Each structure stands twice: as C-alpha cells, then as structure tokens.
Amino acid sequence: MKCSMYRFSSAALWLPGVLVALFTGSATAAPFQNGSFETNTGSAAAGWSNTGPIVFTSDEGATDGTQSAIFNGANQVPSAVVWQTFDTIPSQNYFLDFDFGKYAAGSPDTIIQQLQIEVRDGASPSSGGQLIVAGSGTTNGASGGTIFSNTSTPQVRDSSGAVINSLQFSHFTFQFIATSGTSTLVFRDQADGTVNTDGALDSVAVTVPEPASLTAFAAAGLALMRRRRHTE
C-alpha cells in the first residue's frame, strides 16, 4: 500500500566544519494527501480539485483501498481535469507514482483511455513551467498500459480492455524537480472515446528518493566519533 502523506524526522551530527542531517522514515511531499481518493463525496475528493466528468467511487475497482477516480463515466465526453497543489522543496528531486487502467464494459473494444500528466511550478493547473523530467517515465505495463509520450508533459494510455467488466491497472513512475515551494500535479483526460469504457486512476504518491549517500556519510561520521571516544 502506498503512503500519500509524508513524515520525516531529523537529527543533527556535528563533524569538524560540517553539519550532517540524518533523515529517517518515508519521504514525500508534506501536505500531499488522499492519493488513493478514499476520502470523497462521490463528486469531489479531499485535497483535490476537479472539473468535467469525473467521479470517485468503488464501483469499478481500485489498487489501494476501495475508491478510485473514474473518468468520463456514463458515456460523457472526455474532458475531466483533476489536480492537487502541495508543498515542495526547491531543487529537490521527486518521484511521482500512480496506477492507471481501462474499464471495458463491452467487447470488442478498441477505445484508447489516455491521461496527460503535468507537474507545474505554482499553485494552479495552468501556472508556471512543466517540472517532469523528459524521458523519466517507466511502467510495468501490467494491464497493457503504455507511455505514449515520455516528455516533460507525458501521456499514458491503456487500450487493452482485455477483461470485460473488470478494471486492471498498470503502474507508472515519473520524476520531477521542484523549482519553488509549491507545485501542482495535474491529470487531464484525453480518451478518444467513452462508450462502454472508462479510465481509472488510483494510488497517486509523491515521494522523495532516500538520501543514501548522505546516510552513509553520516554513519561514517558516527563511527569516527565512537572510535575517538574509545581512544580518549
């Protein structure tokens, strides 16, 4: 299960002329919340803003909990946008993870379910520049999901619909580098059709890579201090 909030604790170790910070715990953007849409009213989800035909429901399946975001339900024209603004640290690298898949209610089904993903600098879905690192996207392709465009404004899609009346997800990961203290994650529905099929989003998480090199350096410093105590 993914965690969409982050907590970290810090301690400080003074070495001659150097302050080393030690971080423990799972790291992700502090106020980012409700990445699995579990807290919702059906038409809105806590922490998120949305426009267009999108609902939050347990009707079609999920990968974390019971709820997911369902795009273009009831054969509505695909045009939904869902976004969340959250705190970031300038120059910090982040991972963006999410699950996306296609629900197919009939066969044969060749309709493409597609999302455009943006991480924008600032507090709105149209503010600032794009922050996703071009070429950083990866997917496990579990349900036939693919990265259609691996740019700074990537697009992911699923056209399989292999299992009728069942929702299967693929997992996607991208990287972005924050440029200010506020960033906005945006998902835009770009499906090429909607009859008997929906796109679904779940398990959205923003995480910070573990500072492995910093931890190793701090551990070496602690070992040095212990050796000095034993020799004094």
Radius of gyration from CA coordinates = 21 Å
Number of helices: 1
What is the count of structural domains?
2
How would you write the strand order of the largest sheet? 3-6-13-8-11-10
The first-to-last residue Cα distance is 48 Å
What's the β-strand tally?
Answer: 14
Observed structural traits:
2 domains; 6-stranded antiparallel sheet; Jelly Rolls
Summarize the structure.
The protein is mostly beta strands and 232 residues long.
List the helices and strands and how they pair.
Layout: E1 9-15, E2 18-24, E3 49-51, E4 54-57, E5 68-71, E6 81-87, E7 93-104, E8 113-121, E9 138-139, E10 146-149, E11 155-158, E12 166-177, E13 182-189, E14 197-207, H1 212-231
Antiparallel strand pairs: 1-2, 3-6, 4-5, 5-14, 6-13, 7-12, 7-14, 8-11, 8-13, 9-12, 10-11
How would you explain this protein's 3D organization?
By secondary structure, the protein is mainly beta. It has two domains: 50 residues, no CATH class; 181 residues, Galactose-binding domain-like (Jelly Rolls, Sandwich). It has a six-stranded antiparallel β-sheet, with no helix packed on it. Strand 1 and strand 2 form a beta hairpin. The longest helix is centred in the C-terminal third of the chain and has 20 residues. The protein is globular, with a radius of gyration of 21 Å. The termini are far apart.
